[in-house]
Structures are given as C-alpha cells and as structure tokens.
## 1
Amino acid sequence: MKQHDSIIAIGLTVFSGLVSFLFVFYAVNILSAENASEYAKVFAYVSAGYGLGNVYILSAAWRGSSWTLWANKLIAFCFFGVFLMHMVQTGVENNLEYLRALGMAGVLWLNWFAVKKISRRTALPVQPPARKRR
C-alpha cells in the first residue's frame, strides 16, 4: 500500500472513531434525559449499539478479520432503517430534513469505506501459485 493510501486509511479511521463516539454520546444524552419518550430511548439504544459496534468492527478490521465489511454493511443498513423510521415518527417539517437523511447516509458510507480501506491495508498480499518445474 502506498503512503497516501495509508494516510487516507488512518484519517478515515479517526473520522469513523469520532463518529462512533458521537453516536454513543448522543445515546447517553438521550438516555439520561428525564423527559425522553420511549421511542427516543429505543432510538438511543440503537445509536449506541451502532457506535459501539462500529468501533468493534474497526478494531477487527485492523486485526485483519475478513467478516468486517459484511458486518459493517449489516449494522449500517439496520441503523439507517431505524433512523428513517425515527424521522417518520417524529415528523418531517420541511424538505431540508431530507438532507439530514442524506448526511447520515454519507456518514454511514464513510464508515463503511473506512473499514474497506483498513481491510485492504491489513490484507495479506496474494501470492501467485508456485509453478511446477518439469
């Protein structure tokens, strides 16, 4: 891997780690509020689960696990579905709130891209099979 690819992978990892922290921070704030609705608390649990799951997937990708891309896609699609349901439940007041959904999709895609870059960075190089000598 080239040096600029390594820098991009590290930058994406830091971004993904910060985003995961923000998901967990958001969840803790909602869960510690006294007047939060039950639906908001469920969304907070899902947000915390995504944040913590993403950190675990990032660390597994650094170790070279092969299942990380699939797992990241799974939790990202599940979280985005719950995010859209939460958006519908709370009501969309104007069309600018759809930009919030696009922004969340972008953040989830960047998290997936970070895992992809890390997985590619830690993957073992593929060796061509040895040719038999006659």
## 2
Amino acid sequence: MQIQTKSGSLVIDYYPTKSWDNVKQHDKVLRILTLLGDTISKKVITTSQYVNEVYDRIHNFEYVDNKEDHSNLYQFITLKEGEIK
C-alpha cells in the first residue's frame, strides 16, 4: 500500500515481510518514508500499528491512498529488524 500527503511531498509505502528463509511474517510490515524522492526512514512495524497508522493518516491528516498494491512484494527482514520493541 502507498499513501501520500495531498502535496505529494511525503510518500509512505507499506510492504509485507518475510525472513531470509522465505517464511512470510504476517504480523510485521515494512514502512518506508520518502520525502521529496529521498528515503528518510525504513522501519518494521506490527500489522496492528500499520492498520491504525493508515487509518489515522487518511482520516485525520487527509493523506491520499495511491491505490498501489504491494501485497505480493514481500521484503526480506533480518531477525534483528523483526524484533519490535
């Protein structure tokens, strides 16, 4: 999924994740923040954080859903990245 500010200056992509042995991590999502075309942050978040964040940004901050479907583009994460504190 991809959302962005109305101006398009900040874009947030969300990707499903998998471990190095190709095990899908359904409870974790990779969030990538891009500001003016430059990646500024990559972070692994929980699925519930993802759902709450997208809802909040769309309904309270008027972000736009770009209708980009990343659901089949699993991204590798290391064990350390997969540890959410």
## 3
Amino acid sequence: MKRQPIYLLVAVFGLVTSGGLFAAHAQDAVTFGQILKNRWAMTDAQFAAYQKTLVGQEVRWSGKLSDVTADDRWFFGTSYTARIIVAGYEPSVFCTVSSDVAQRLQRNATYAFSGKIQQIDSFLRIFVTLEDVTFE
C-alpha cells in the first residue's frame, strides 16, 4: 500500500517535467484569427459570452507596428500606446508601453509579443487590448 503513492508521485512528476501537464494549456492559447472567426460565426450574445472567457488569457502573437501614440496626462505624466496590425487587420491590438519601449519600436517593423488579454472591443471591428506586454 505504501508504494502506490510513490508510483503516483513518480507518474505525476514525469508528466510535469516532460511538459505533458502544461503542453495542452500552451496549445489552447487563442489566436487573433480565432477571435475574428468566432466574431463573425457567433451571434452578438454568444460572442459577448465568449469575450469574457478570454480576459486574462496569455497570448503570444506577432504583428506589424502601426504607430506608438503619446497621451499626455496632466497629473500622471505621459503614457504610450502601441498599435499593432495582426493578421492584416489594422490596427487590431493595443497595449501600453514604457517610454523606453516606445522609443525603441519602429513603424512597420514586425514584432513578436506576448501579454494578457485585458479587453476585447467588437463594435464594427475587433480591437484587443493587452496588458503586461513584452516585445521579443
């Protein structure tokens, strides 16, 4: 009887270290194309429910930088928003970046980036706002 928990522990440890436990989760990350496809395939009510399931999900996408805009806030300083074209859909992804990143990014350059979905707006077009974004 005492050996069964040991075997179970070894089996779980092997699953975790081989990537088996986390591999399925990484494959489940939504693509921008899937969001677009679902927007046009679902009713408004279905898509509204679907959007809520995506908030907080980590994604890794790539796209072409359209622009970085500066928004001067009187009390809070300047914030910078990167606007990125993903899947040829202009502009489709928005994220706040630091001043250093804003100065480093180049218009029309293609970047891989990752972050968490903060919000999806679907009025007339699809706009995804990401948070905790890092550019590779």
